[in-house]
Amino acid sequence: MKKRSVTWLQYTKVILEKVSFDFQIFIKELKKSLIRLTILELVALETWISERFQAAIANRAMRIVREYRVTLY
Length: 73
Prior knowledge:
Blueprint: H1 8-19, H2 23-34, H3 39-52, H4 55-72
Protein backbone atom coordinates (compact mmCIF):
# COMPACT_ATOMS: atom_id res chain seq x y z
CA MET A 1 0.00 0.00 0.00
CA LYS A 2 1.35 3.40 -0.98
CA LYS A 3 1.56 5.94 1.81
CA ARG A 4 -0.03 9.25 0.91
CA SER A 5 2.23 12.19 1.54
CA VAL A 6 0.86 15.51 2.68
CA THR A 7 2.58 18.74 1.73
CA TRP A 8 3.28 21.47 4.25
CA LEU A 9 0.78 23.64 2.42
CA GLN A 10 -1.98 21.05 2.80
CA TYR A 11 -1.08 20.54 6.45
CA THR A 12 -1.11 24.31 7.06
CA LYS A 13 -4.57 24.61 5.53
CA VAL A 14 -5.92 21.85 7.76
CA ILE A 15 -4.46 23.47 10.89
CA LEU A 16 -5.72 26.95 9.96
CA GLU A 17 -9.20 25.57 9.30
CA LYS A 18 -9.24 23.90 12.73
CA VAL A 19 -8.13 27.00 14.65
CA SER A 20 -10.09 29.57 12.65
CA PHE A 21 -12.54 29.95 15.56
CA ASP A 22 -9.89 31.98 17.45
CA PHE A 23 -8.09 34.78 15.60
CA GLN A 24 -5.09 34.86 17.95
CA ILE A 25 -4.44 31.13 17.57
CA PHE A 26 -5.00 31.42 13.83
CA ILE A 27 -2.30 34.09 13.51
CA LYS A 28 0.08 32.16 15.79
CA GLU A 29 -0.30 28.99 13.68
CA LEU A 30 0.03 30.98 10.47
CA LYS A 31 3.33 32.48 11.62
CA LYS A 32 4.64 29.06 12.66
CA SER A 33 3.81 27.60 9.27
CA LEU A 34 5.54 30.26 7.19
CA ILE A 35 9.06 28.94 7.73
CA ARG A 36 8.15 25.59 6.16
CA LEU A 37 6.58 26.86 2.94
CA THR A 38 8.22 27.72 -0.36
CA ILE A 39 7.57 31.05 -2.06
CA LEU A 40 5.08 29.44 -4.46
CA GLU A 41 3.29 27.82 -1.54
CA LEU A 42 3.13 31.19 0.23
CA VAL A 43 1.41 32.70 -2.80
CA ALA A 44 -1.01 29.77 -2.94
CA LEU A 45 -1.67 30.17 0.80
CA GLU A 46 -2.46 33.86 0.35
CA THR A 47 -4.96 33.02 -2.38
CA TRP A 48 -6.56 30.30 -0.29
CA ILE A 49 -6.84 32.58 2.75
CA SER A 50 -8.44 35.38 0.72
CA GLU A 51 -10.99 32.97 -0.74
CA ARG A 52 -11.74 31.07 2.46
CA PHE A 53 -11.93 33.66 5.23
CA GLN A 54 -13.75 36.92 5.91
CA ALA A 55 -12.09 40.12 4.74
CA ALA A 56 -10.94 41.25 8.20
CA ILE A 57 -9.15 37.98 8.93
CA ALA A 58 -7.91 37.55 5.37
CA ASN A 59 -6.42 41.04 5.15
CA ARG A 60 -4.49 40.70 8.40
CA ALA A 61 -3.29 37.20 7.57
CA MET A 62 -2.23 38.14 4.04
CA ARG A 63 -0.31 41.13 5.39
CA ILE A 64 1.66 38.79 7.66
CA VAL A 65 2.40 36.42 4.77
CA ARG A 66 3.54 39.29 2.52
CA GLU A 67 5.79 40.73 5.20
CA TYR A 68 7.39 37.33 5.60
CA ARG A 69 7.84 36.95 1.82
CA VAL A 70 9.66 40.30 1.70
CA THR A 71 12.18 39.05 4.25
CA LEU A 72 12.98 36.09 1.96
CA TYR A 73 14.24 38.34 -0.83
